[in-house]
From TrEMBL:
Its cofactor is Zn(2+). In the N-terminal section; belongs to the cytidine and deoxycytidylate deaminase family. Gene3D superfamilies: Cytidine Deaminase, domain 2, Dihydrofolate Reductase, subunit A. The lineage of its organism: Bacteria, Pseudomonadati, Pseudomonadota, Alphaproteobacteria, Rhodobacterales. It catalyses: 2,5-diamino-6-hydroxy-4-(5-phosphoribosylamino)-pyrimidine + H2O + H(+) = 5-amino-6-(5-phospho-D-ribosylamino)uracil + NH4(+); 5-amino-6-(5-phospho-D-ribitylamino)uracil + NADP(+) = 5-amino-6-(5-phospho-D-ribosylamino)uracil + NADPH + H(+). CDD domains: Riboflavin_deaminase-reductase (cd01284). Its EC number is 3.5.4.26, 1.1.1.193. This is Riboflavin biosynthesis protein RibD. Pathway: Cofactor biosynthesis; riboflavin biosynthesis; 5-amino-6-(D-ribitylamino)uracil from GTP: step 2/4; Cofactor biosynthesis; riboflavin biosynthesis; 5-amino-6-(D-ribitylamino)uracil from GTP: step 3/4. GO terms for biological process: riboflavin biosynthetic process.
Amino acid sequence: MAHALALGRRGLGQVWPNPAVGCVIVSQGRIVGRGSTQPGGRPHAEAVALEQAGPRARGATAYVSLEPCAHHGRTPPCADALVASGIARVVTSMEDPDPRVAGRGHRILRDAGIEVTTGICAAEARRDQAGFLQRIMQGRPMLTLKLATSFDGRIATASGESRWITGPDARRAVHAMRARHDGILVGGGTARADDPELTVRGLGPVCQPVRLIASRKLDLPEAGRLASSARQGKLWLCHGPEATERRRAHWREAGARLIEIPVRHGQLDLTALLAVLGAEGLTRIFCEGGGTFAASLLQADLVDRLAGFTAGLALGAEGRPGLGALGIDRLVAAPRFELDETRAVGGDVLHVWRRVPTA
């Protein structure tokens, strides 16, 4: 099952709206087939592994990191394919909460006389499927907020100089993180200040994540890198009702997709924004600022993971802070996260934190 989980992780950021699943088929102690959900979500892991196994699947055991699907989509159900293959036993990590599956896949297998064991490596599977599970059960994608700061939490000098606080190894690690997410999100302030590409670079051919900009007025640079690359990958601009028709027309013509989001208290309703992105099928979002936008996400309790790269330099109080104002006057009101991972990345330190579960 550990091998199936590792195969499934290859699909993170590549297969939305489907879950990233791995499958390993074992016959007489030997692996005869293995597969993972392919880019774009098709074919599924089980189909890839069964094709590789061929007739050797008969009487074998299939290890699958999520309950096989039980519904007809663009392809027949994987549960039916496993039955037709003559598989004797199926071992899964967890049940799929998708209402179209939700135990039906396991039931199809059992009704066909196949032995089914589930719950193996369940904690690891839930961790890998966190984004998919959250979209299905809560209607929004998992959101990771990334910050790269000095030791004292600054993202730039007082004059705005920020390249580069962290080193090349950290920057490469950020691109690897981008590749494992379905979308990269920034606020309008960052888009105006940096005109970022928001792409995965230096890792070879990958499915590029959706580039997401949250800009209430759609007042973005109209002659920069974003505009010139709008047709070279998915660019979704999330704006409020007051965005002018001229700006809307410009970005439509450039090739961007426009998504209108309701406004609350004079700002984009970020809860509604994530709900829309979940309805579009996105499961994992990687947010890279800026500070005011990141603070708004924290205030709205929408951040599920924090990923911080800390460099060994100090910029002092006059440096620009990594987060905007949160309006916190009591420690008990501060958003809390629990440490999940810490490691050296070149000359910097990466620390990853998870949302503290509510009681």
